[in-house]
Every structure is written in structure tokens, then in C-alpha cells.
Amino acid sequence: MINDYLEIRNAEGMPKLVDATMSMAFLLNAKSSVRNCAIALTEAASTEVRTVLRCELNSAILMHEEIYTMMIDKGWFHPIDLQKQFQMDLEASQTAVQIASMDLFPGDTSRLGTFATPEI
Q: Is residue 67 domain-resident?
């Protein structure tokens, strides 16, 4: 990994990594939504509330399925092939450690001439 993260050419592979990470967060939130709707459904007292919660639960399950399927289709999630999933998780954690060890405030951050900026 090249440490000059301000250069666009050094961001190769980052959009895919960000997409995979954000979709995993979205999947986990959808899973929490399913769980929360199911819990609320078991505690609802009126028929009307149970009907609304049942609809919400079905919507949350469908959302989880859509995200889950998309992640599998894109190769971001391998629930069946645990060895492949473990390798992906290991690479992601190594990348996270590399990003965390980067010098976030390098001495020279001047990029005059790189962008359309007026000369000073």
C-alpha cells in the first residue's frame, strides 16, 4: 500500500472495499430491523398493532434478502464457502490495519497544480 493517500491513483480498489463494507453494515442493520420487529410483534397487545408490525417484519425480511443476494452476486459475501469468507475477512482486517497505520497528517500536503486552483 502506498502511503500517499492524497494521490487519486493510490486509491485503487478502495471503491470496491467501501461498497462491500457499507453493504455489510446495511445488511447488519437490516438484520437488526428483522429482530426488533419480531420482538415488538411478540409484545404487541392489539390486533391492529400486530398487523402493522407483521407488515413491517415482512418488509424487513425482504430488505435483508435483497441486500444478502446482492452481496453474494457481487462476491462480497460467501456464507456457504467459509474458507473463502475467512480469507476475505482476513484481507479486510489487514487493509484496515494498514489504513490505521497511515500518516494521516503528512508534513507536505501541498497539491498545488494537481487541482484547478488559483496560483498563490
A: yes
Buried b (16+ CB within 10 A) or exposed e, 81-114: eeeeeeebeeeeeeeeeeeeeeeeeeeeeeeeee
Please say whether the beta carbons of 15 and 31 come within 8 A: no
How would you class 120 by CB atoms within 10 Å of its CB: exposed for 0-12, middle for 13-18, buried for 19 or more? exposed
* pTM tops 0.85, yes or no: no
Q: Is residue 118 part of a domain?
A: no
SS3 state of residue 117: coil
The verdict on residue 48 lying in a domain is yes
Residue 115, Ramachandran bin (φ over 0: left; ψ between -120 and 50: alpha; else beta): beta
Tens of pLDDT along 47-56? 999 999 999 9
Range of the domain at 77: 14-100
Number of structural domains in the chain: 1
Distances (CA, A) of 59 to 40, 47, 50, 111: 15, 18, 14, 48
